[in-house]
Amino acid sequence: MAARSIKAGEVIIAVPRNILISCRTILSSRLGTELKKWSSTSRFTCAQVLSLFLLLEKNKGKSSFWHPYIRSLPNTFTTPVYFTETELNALSPSLQEKARDLKKELLHAFNDLEPFVSSSLPELDSTFTFDAFRWAWSVLKTRTLYQEDCRSPYLSNREPQTSTLVPMLDLINHSPSAKARFGYNVNTSCYEVRVLEPYRKHDQVFISYGFEENSELMLKFGFYVPRNPKDFIKINLSELLECLPQISDEDRKNKVDLLFESGLLSNQTCSWNGISWQVMSVLQVLATNGIDKNSVPSIFPNSNPLSCQNAALSSEELQAMQAARTLLERRLESYETTIEEDEALLREVQSPCMEMAVGSRAEEKRMLRNALNLLQTNQ
Q1: What total of structural domains would you count in the chain?
Q2: What is the distance between the alpha carbons of residues 364 and 339, in angstroms, rounded to a whole number?
Q3: Distance between CA atoms of residues 296 and 291, nearest Å
């Protein structure tokens, strides 16, 4: 919350370099000394060693330089690595496999570190449990920012060595509409946040975490934004083809080739604004007889019938709208529960992770239903 009015362009947070926790911090610590010795055996990723560093500093208690920061961190998270199997199954089907992959990644990172911890970090060995490591890993994954690549030969090059924890800055919440710039300023040797819009006294100040659609926010940070204006659902070409079954196999192949050549297969999405005009363009191409590459551009001016509320629609436009309705109806029917059932479950659920799983999938369904209502309104 702003303690005073803030002007656009002001730096609101400046965190000195010696407060940052990065690969450089670790390599200059005792942990870094042990990692250098171990590097002939194996090298760990930036995420692994930062997680280890957090656990070592947490074990020190008040004697740790970072104790005030560590004390401010949450004890648990609602990211998928904390989900039970039941909670994973409650996620939207499109997220379930990705969420399970995140749990596998965590388990692999933990198992990979066990020999090193047992051999080189006796003070951590008795407390190096999966749950403890999951906490540290989650702190890093949900709060990490980035600096210039460390490029240390003692760490793995499987991923960039850029991850950095920035105390205080990571307390600022996300908003998809936030306008702020943040990064390391070499002139001031500080990690800075500069707002690009004004705030009044007592306003809550936000930044954007950079991952704007709810699916990414859910996977990476464990939350979603209700009626997120940046949210969208991807639509596959195969789904569009299934909505126009009357097209012959030969015609389908020719039209798919035409769509690739014309560059029409990008941004096949549904958002809170409805079905994208690219989806409607593809459906119109699929519904139009005798179309070739030269005639495709003529579709663009009226490629989205939703923008032509008072105009008479061609038979191809009507077919495209019917196919879009079919697409949305099938998507909604593919879920095991309805929006109403999800909302009833949300009133009873006790687990924060289950609340996020059910809430995020219900939000996805609301967006699909909204798009369907827009099509029906413009019929």
Answers
A1: 2
A2: 9
A3: 7
Query: CA-to-CA distance for 316 and 257, rounded, in angstroms?
Result: 19
Q: Are 23 and 155 in contact (CB under 8 A)?
A: yes
pLDDT digit of tens for each residue in the chain (379 aa)?
788 999 999 999 999 999 999 999 999 999 999 999 999 888 999 999 999 999 999 999 999 999 999 999 999 999 999 999 999 999 999 999 999 999 999 999 999 999 999 999 999 988 999 999 999 999 999 999 888 888 899 999 888 888 999 998 888 888 888 888 888 999 999 999 999 999 999 988 888 887 689 999 999 999 999 999 999 999 999 999 999 888 888 888 888 888 888 888 888 999 999 999 899 989 988 888 877 666 665 555 445 545 545 445 678 888 889 999 999 999 999 999 999 999 999 999 999 999 999 999 999 999 999 999 998 876 6
Burial degree of 226 (CB within 10 A; 0-12, 13-18, 19+)? exposed
157 and 35 together in one domain: yes
- Residue 4 domain-assigned (yes or no): no
Question: Does residue 227 belong to any structural domain of this protein?
Answer: no
- Say how many Å lie between the first and final Cα of the chain, rounded: 46
Q: What residues make up the domain containing 81? A: 11-221
Question: Which CATH number goes with the domain that contains 311?
Answer: 3.90.1420.10
DSSP 314: P
The CA distances from residue 75 to 22, 71, 78, 126, in Å, are 21, 9, 11, 19
Q: What does 4-63 look like in DSSP terms, one character per residue?
A: S-B-TT-EEEEEEGGG-EEHHHHHTSHHHHHHHHHTTT----HHHHHHHHHHHHHHHGGG
Query: In the structure encoding, which two tokens stand for residue 144, read together?
Result: 């990490």
213 and 250 fall within a common domain? no
- Give the Cα separation of 25 and 18 in Å (integer): 8
Angle between the N-to-C axes of helices 130-143 and 214-221, in degrees from 0 to 180, rounded to the nearest 10: 140
Q: Please state, in angstroms and rounded to a whole number, the distance separating the CA atoms of residues 377 and 379.
A: 6
Q: Which of 63, 40, 12 is nearest to 192 (CA)?
A: 12
For 27, phi then psi, to 5°, come to: -65, -20
